[in-house]
Specification:
The chain is of the alpha+beta class. It contains 19 helices and 37 strands. Helix 7 crosses helix 19.
Length: about 750
């Protein structure tokens, strides 16, 4: 209770500044997302600044090192290191079964008492990233060195208090291929303040054997650490003194190196490899579409999340996490991550990641997996129009398509029973599996028609038409109408009770996590009453907090608590809000994730995190980092800005919508939004909005895609509250404007400049 008292006081101070925000207990008990709704009620809607003070951030993990790990890796490298987020060491052991031991543990200590770096949380800063986003991590820790602790102390000694020592740590992974293959980490220490610094590095006793010429080797003679000339060996520790303007650097290979293969460590070599790493990451991010918003935090987030996901790719496999039990490939989550990379412009990477995803299999979920595989291939085709890639992958995806077409042996033309989901092994007639499979067959028929395979395309289209009818008939038999809106189960034909509230049981939590697959399939016809049932049910029966998918509700997990969120599974909900043209709810999900789904500054997330705090410093989250969680944010940001959609429900994207979900704050006077080289199903598009409210206008310029003409092109200017778009013109001609500030650019080509006239 004492540990929570500072947090209670912290929350009380926040709530006193905004009486409209309910306390945490009320937010958890409500069937509605009361924090999200309070955010939408703020001037100009949800924001990072609204959500960030409501809770302390994710910080703690179920491991001996307690503070979350930051993965350090070169792009696509197979060997990855971890830096503990409080600076206590590199490759420390997790202890619990959830965490893998990687490399040789190296612990950092400071001061003449050799105290653990980061050992007192109130003295350590939040880790930061170089330039706000590069995977070069920086930390500061305050630990005062005594002036004189004993000996010949003058009896009339005057009081003297020099500045406290603030130790600065910087660490990054080498990107030089010769070093990246062994997961080499470079570390530098210096003093940000103070004059009398002491450092000690403790290398796991089982590995350390001999220190000579700055190299520490193990019993087999392999190098486990390399130190520059500032270090010496004492009492089984590498120790160094720091004075103002001096540094101490070292190198830590995660996989030990042959003694003859390593250079001598120097501060100059540290600087050389730091610059090389920075340039590697900048070059990689430069290949993506470029997005510039008026919020530096948003711009830093998307850049770093791309870097982080390349750090989690292992060869050609996009792993869910690294250094823990999730360090492996998963079909659904891996597909979401690969698609996010595709949406941001990494088309070649999507091609190489697609193969392992198609080859993946997990018994009991074959239909569920096949739907993802086919949809991955379809999206790859529409964005790239690369028929050769589809044909090259055909031997792999075609057997999955046949699996979907040939195995509708269950009741009423559906599949036989399959697992409810990956964690719930109870078999059922799964709406998720059937609805995703319908979408996969329908969409592949459209792709095959584009490739000129008319006969095959028609055959699959006919199957899809029949399959949709069968699935909707099964839903009609299974939907529960005693709630408002009606409850749509995953398990069809009466096998699943109504979850009201959603978190009444473990199975309710899992329904909430996975029902988005049905929602995103589009199985319910456009414009039908049913198409909004699932999202509205989540919004009204306890499925969301700050726009993130909730779970728990009494179910204990040693990783977090019984009240938590699983943000990455909210991607389909967030995209559905945009499909419904409800950008305010989409922005709740976006900023809720940015403020409370990620760690501060470093943008690390897990599969889920507690809503109840451990103390005023943070909450538990499990098995970070998480590539699909990163993809969740990347996907949301992309679709806030650019949507290439199949709104006429025929399997082929035909509508391009630009600026439909931007924050109203982004067009405050003098601000601008920029998108460059955004990949779409029609080719790359660029756009720029410049706000000149004081002059009564917003200027927009769009470079429309040239490869394939969209059937419809819509451009929107979402101006701040209190303003409205009154008219618009392009090339001297007046354009019709709707109440949302949208103009229709259908039929135009090349570069189009639009002048929106605005008024209060």
């Amino acid at each position: 209770m004492k540990r929570l008292l500072p947090f209670v006081l912290f929350v009380a101070s926040v709530l006193s500044a905004s009486a409209a925000v309910p306390p945490l207990a009320e937010a958890l008990a409500s069937g509605r997302d009361v924090w999200g709704e309070a955010a939408m009620a703020q001037p100009n809607g949800a924001s990072y600044e609204f959500f960030a003070p409501l809770l302390p951030p994710p910080r703690y993990v179920h491991a001996d090192f307690r503070h979350y790990p930051i993965v350090l890796s070169a792009p696509n490298a197979k060997v990855k290191a971890r830096l503990i987020a409080n600076g206590s060491g590199v490759n420390l052991r997790g202890g619990s079964r959830s965490w893998h031991d990687i490399g040789t543990p190296v612990t950092f200590r400071v001061g003449p008492d050799e105290f653990l770096f980061g050992g007192l949380r109130e003295r350590v800063t939040e880790p930061e990233l170089a330039e706000g986003w590069l995977p070069i991590v920086q930390l500061r820790y305050t630990h005062r060195s005594p002036v004189q602790s004993g000996g010949l102390v003058p009896l009339d000694q005057p009081k003297h208090e020099p500045p406290r020592e603030i130790y600065r740590l910087e660490a990054f992974a080498a990107t030089d291929p010769a070093l990246a293959s062994n997961g080499v980490v470079f570390v530098k220490f210096d003093l940000a303040q103070g004059t009398n610094g002491f450092l000690a590095v403790e290398v796991d006793g089982k590995a350390a054997n001999k220190f000579s010429a700055g190299r520490l080797t193990d019993a087999q003679g392999r190098v486990v650490a390399v130190f520059d000339s500032a270090w010496k060996w004492e009492r089984g520790l590498a120790v160094a003194r720091l004075r103002p303007g001096t540094t101490a650097t070292l190198e830590i290979p995660t996989a030990s190196l042959d003694a003859g293969a390593l250079f001598k460590m120097t501060p100059a070599l540290y600087a050389q490899h730091r610059e090389a790493a920075a340039q590697t990451w900048k070059k990689l991010v430069a290949q993506a579409m470029n997005v510039e918003t008026p919020e530096p935090l948003v711009n830093n987030a998307w850049r770093h999340l791309l870097c982080q996901n390349f750090s989690l790719i292992t060869g050609d496999r996009i792993h869910y996490s690294a250094g823990n039990q999730y360090d492996q490939l998963y079909e659904a989550e891996g597909s979401d991550t690969a698609l996010a990379m595709l949406w941001w412009g990494y088309e070649n990477d999507m091609r190489r990641l697609a193969g392992p995803l198609i080859d993946f299999t997990r018994k009991g979920l074959e239909f569920h997996q096949a739907g993802f595989k086919i949809n991955d291939v379809c999206r790859l085709y529409w964005q790239t129009r690369d028929a050769a890639a589809v044909k090259e992958l055909r031997p792999r995806w075609e057997k999955e398509l046949r699996r979907l077409v040939d195995n509708r042996t269950g009741p009423d033309g559906l599949f036989p029973k399959e697992q409810y989901c990956g964690d719930i092994h109870t078999f059922c007639y799964s709406l998720n599996a059937n609805s995703k499979a319908w979408r996969a067959i329908r969409d592949m028929s459209t792709v095959l028609a584009e490739l000129g395979e008319k006969e095959e395309a028609k055959r699959y289209a006919d199957v899809a038409t029949d399959f949709r009818k069968a699935t909707l008939a099964a839903v009609a038999k299974s939907v529960r109408r005693e709630t408002t809106p009606p409850f749509v189960p995953v398990a069809l034909f009466g096998d699943e009770p109504v979850h009201d509230p959603i978190l009444h049981s473990r199975i309710g939590s899992y329904w909430n996590i996975i029902i988005g697959y049905t929602m995103a399939s589009g199985i319910f016809p456009r414009g039908s009453e049913e198409e909004n049932w699932i999202a509205r049910y989540q919004e009204q029966h306890g499925g969301l907090c700050m726009g993130m998918i909730r779970s728990g509700g009494g179910e204990f997990t040693f990783w977090t608590s019984d009240q938590r969120v699983n943000p990455l599974y909210g991607t389909r909900y967030a995209l559905d809000t945009l499909r419904r043209d409800d950008p305010e709810r989409a922005l709740v999900s976006f900023y809720g994730m940015l403020a409370q789904g990620f760690t501060r500054n470093t943008f690390v997330t897990g599969e889920g995190c507690a809503l109840t705090p451990v103390d005023d410093g943070g909450r538990f989250f499990y098995c970070p980092p998480n590539s699909a969680g990163n993809a969740h944010f990347l996907t949301m940001l992309r679709h806030l800005l650019v949507q290439d959609s199949d709104l006429d429900d025929d399997g082929e994207p035909e509508t391009l919508r630009l600026g439909f979900g931007t924050s109203r704050r982004w067009l405050e006077d003098g601000k601008q939004i920029k998108i460059e080289r955004a990949p779409t199903a029609f080719g790359p598009v660029s756009a720029k909005w410049e706000s000149k409210l004081s002059s009564g206008e917003v200027l927009a310029q769009v470079e429309l895609p040239a490869r394939n003409a969209p059937k419809k092109i819509l451009l929107r200017a979402r101006v701040p509250e209190g303003w409205r778009v009154t008219s618009a013109e392009a090339a001297g001609r007046t354009l019709a404007v709707d109440e949302h500030g949208t103009v229709d650019l259908t039929g135009r080509t090349g570069t189009v400049a639009v002048r929106f006239k605005v008024a209060k």
